[in-house]
Specification:
This protein is of the alpha/beta class and 468 residues long. 36% of the residues lie in helices and 16% in strands. A hairpin with a 7-residue loop joins strand 2 and strand 3.
Length: 468
């Protein structure tokens, strides 16, 4: 919701100008923040932006600072309205924390085996990578565990009459397990049908698949994402095949097969620091060569347990500047460009599966709270195992106490975060900072946190002045 006077309507993202992360906290306890926006001010509470005059802004500041100057009945009424909006946000946030963990989505990492050797892969330490060297056990998810977990999720979805979601992702390439993938699709469709609920699905692939596989995926899955990092000199260097060959031609053949067949298809592009300034070029390449109209740009993840990939907090301004340039160009061509670290349309925290009511099944037949621990061994090291498949009873057993502890840690807002207007819809440094295992690391010192704050500032200013 945006309350503002009628102003001019433009279509372009304006360049960053002035200090774009300087917010003023207006209320001593409620999430109400102010920032200059053109000739006026924006007052922000998560999910709502109010454009106010300079006089109104200073009147609000006097009310909430306990000043004695009378701001007038109009400003008092505005203050009451803003306070109600802020209290509603806090109530929704508290309500989310009170909800019991109810898995409504099943995410499956079939294995960490892959036919690509991406330089920034978060599962690179999970070896062996070659499909022909796989042994059973902790390197794969069993068919029985998937079936059991799917029943648990389908039953939960049926009780609340929500659609059953199956997401096939992974530290590896899921299509390497082609027979198992087809069986999962067939089995979960049947489960949903038996319970009278809708079946929805997503798969993330590196695109190194055959044309027949791409056609089947497009026909079967609700949505599909393919990883493509842009022009050949970027993509082939960052995403070679496992044996070191260029992968671009195969990936682009896959995208061409998916185009026009998949109901919802997008490209995920991963950036390393050296490519930050080439974001518009990447978007232009994907659109002009492949007619891609939905692009998700993501800086490479620096994982808390593996060290940084190379982004520093000081890189945030450059990333946002070029991201906005790319988005402006994309907007002129009806291309959607997005970034997952800040989602203003929803209240959310870190990427934790337990916050998103997702049962995340990983190799070793365990459920992980973190999407970045790609197998049982890594999840045990990080203390993020929250359930397991018990073969003797053919039951999937969730650890309710551990799930609740993880949820409390992930929902907790530090003093620094409470003073940030993006606290209620920002990943708060995840995955560079794990809110479960690293309580002392202040997210404000991290690249992704600063990116989110800069982007939030830009979006608030644009919305308050009706300018994109």
């Amino acid at each position: 919701m945006i309350d503002r006077p009628d102003t001019k309507d433009e279509t372009e993202d304006r360049p960053l100008s002035g200090p774009c992360d300087v917010f003023r906290r207006l209320h001593p306890s409620l999430p109400l923040f102010g920032i200059p926006a053109g000739s006026q001010y924006a007052v922000y509470t998560p999910g709502q932006i109010f454009a106010v005059s300079e006089q109104q802004f200073h009147g609000l500041a006097r009310i909430w600072s306990g000043g004695t100057a009378g701001p007038g009945r109009e400003v008092v009424s505005l203050a009451e309205r803003l306070e109600k909006a802020a209290r509603d946000v806090e109530a929704r946030w508290a309500g989310q924390q009170m909800l019991p963990f109810t898995p409504e989505c099943l995410t499956v990492y079939l294995s960490n085996q892959c036919n690509a050797d991406c330089v920034y892969c978060y599962a690179r330490s999970s070896v062996p990578r070659r499909i022909d060297s796989v042994r059973s056990g902790d390197m794969e998810v069993s068919v029985e565990a998937v079936a059991c977990a799917a029943r648990l999720v389908a039953d939960a979805c049926a009780r609340c009459q929500k659609p059953f979601w199956i997401v096939i992702h992974g530290g590896g390439e899921p299509t390497l397990h082609w027979g198992q993938l087809q069986e999962i699709v067939r089995h979960t469709r049947e489960l949903a049908q038996e319970r009278g609920i809708d079946w929805r699905s997503h798969i993330a692939t590196n695109g190194l698949i055959s044309e027949a596989q791409a056609a089947w995926i497009a026909d079967q899955f609700t949505s599909v994402s393919v990883s493509h990092d842009g022009p050949p000199d970027i993509h082939n260097v960052q995403r070679p095949t496992l044996d070191g060959r260029p992968s671009l031609a195969i990936v682009e053949r896959t995208i061409q097969t998916l185009q026009g067949r998949s109901s919802h298809f997008y490209v995920r592009t991963t950036l390393l620091p050296g490519q930050v300034g080439r974001q518009q070029e990447i978007v232009e390449y994907l659109y002009e060569r492949l007619q891609v109209t939905s692009i998700h740009i993501e800086p490479a993840y620096p994982l808390w347990d593996q060290g940084a990939v190379g982004f520093r907090p000081s890189d945030a301004e450059g990333f946002i500047e070029h991201f906005l340039q790319a988005r402006t160009w994309a907007g002129r061509h009806d291309v959607a460009v997005s970034f997952s670290g800040l989602r203003m349309q929803e209240l959310h925290g870190p990427y934790c599966n337990v916050l998103r009511h997702t049962l995340h099944l990983i190799p070793g037949d365990v459920a992980g709270a973190c999407p970045f621990t790609p197998d049982k061994n890594r999840a045990m090291e990080a203390n993020t195992v929250v359930g397991h498949y018990d073969r003797s009873s053919d039951a999937f057993i969730l650890d309710a106490d551990r799930i609740e502890a993880h949820r409390r840690s992930a929902y907790h807002l530090s003093a620094t975060c409470r003073d940030c207007p993006g606290a209620y819809h920002c990943v708060r440094g995840c995955p560079a900072r794990c809110h479960i295992v690293e309580e002392k690391n202040d997210p404000a010192s991290l690249f992704r946190c600063r990116v989110s704050r800069l982007l939030l500032c830009h979006e608030i200013r644009c919305a308050a002045t009706n300018v994109r």
